[in-house]
Amino acid sequence: MARTIEEVRRAVGAARREGRVVGLVPTLGALHAGHFSLIERAREECGLVVVSIFVNPTQFGPDEDFERYPRPFEKDVAGCEGHGVDAVFAPEAAEMYPEGFCTEVQVKGLGSVLEGEFRPAHFAGVCTVVLKLLQIVQPEVAYFGEKDYQQLVILEQMVRDLNVPVRIVGCATVREQDGMALSSRNAYLSAEERARGLAIAHGLRAAEAAWKSGERRAETLCALVRQELQGAELEIDYVAAAEPETLKPVEGACGKCVLLVAGRAGRTRLLDNVILSPEV
Amino acid sequence: MARTIEEVRRAVGAARREGRVVGLVPTLGALHAGHFSLIERAREECGLVVVSIFVNPTQFGPDEDFERYPRPFEKDVAGCEGHGVDAVFAPEAAEMYPEGFCTEVQVKGLGSVLEGEFRPAHFAGVCTVVLKLLQIVQPEVAYFGEKDYQQLVILEQMVRDLNVPVRIVGCATVREQDGMALSSRNAYLSAEERARGLAIAHGLRAAEAAWKSGERRAETLCALVRQELQGAELEIDYVAAAEPETLKPVEGACGKCVLLVAGRAGRTRLLDNVILSPEV
Q: Is residue B241 part of a domain?
């Protein structure tokens, strides 16, 4: 396990000199089956798989859950070993943000809508730390979950705009049997909150069913989701239909869109989404 | 000569596979002896020297000289050939900023003082384009002139903060016989403006002489510079004493500092600086 930038670079450098393709799976830890699906995909495609575990302070707002974010570190490391990860990079905050640190990367526009409205500094924190990880590890491929769909779109834009020589791969959301999207934050939910939170997956499933039956109007699809959320008395932050590549709002009939939802059960924010396309 | 990112990457990739160390000299073109001194330094240290020529629109303000910035392109390319440059990268703006481009890199604090007060978006433009060039070319070393001292400090900070695997090398300012710092913008000056602009170099030289005689008070050193500028009726944007690494203002006696000057002769802004240390 690498605690320092120098250590992880040494491990990666050796593998690269042997001609192995390097894959990176950046995480905040609290690993679940969603993370492990990214790791498995990386193992299929790469000769060296690096998982970073870093609860990045700069992507949390002042009133958010940085302090209580779950940190089951030993279990995470064991899980990485069990899934054939070659190197875990788990730096301290001071290694990533030494005194005097003052650089920020922003994807303007994309970073201030939807989640960005509710978490104003969030994506700047995400972009900056992911760019750092990409520079430290220099992977050929980096893996992210579609569960955080806006994050995925923003990181793809950042990498394209800055010409970072890496391929970003988005992997399908992993769900519980009942449809609930896996998230490290699900650990915060009481049984009652979880039951209500499930309305998000139900709403998205209802919208997907309507799409399959031929419904194409963004407003109608969103209304179906909203209805489920309201039925469960979930606080809605947003239910939005957007173009999958640009996140521009979609109105009226559409040939392809992503439905994005953020709701709150108690103190816990829950995100989910579904991509609706002719192939669905 | 490479016009596209793909072309320059191909040229660099081939050299890298041969084990050659890659050096990058980013420029806006209008090359003069200052640029050529960077190129010569790169030639001494690297096996492949890439010069980029790109008048980057995003680092110019709306009322600045982007349109009239000199673009003696054929002459620049010939100069590069004459100085043994291996590859010139001269992209069009659309190659660097395709439609939808929206990412910005900022070095906060450092980018908003001194030049940043007079050119608010300047350093974000510089940082973003330099980071792009570093990702495109992936040089081991990149060369910048000390003439744009604040830019050099900011780029060093950016590269350190983002863990970009490159060494930034700052090279001494090249001057005319009479002391005038070389700058592509000197081409804008009438003979009369140039004569007045020379007061900046004279003022810095006077401050350096005082330093050598034992003067250590920042205020006194700045006053000596200011006096020369006022004598020449130059418009002063700032005369400042700062810590060389952090650009924090220096007051009172100091063991080491950089004196930074920006003045205007007619419509032309002129920058210069001198580093004062025990070794001077």
A: yes
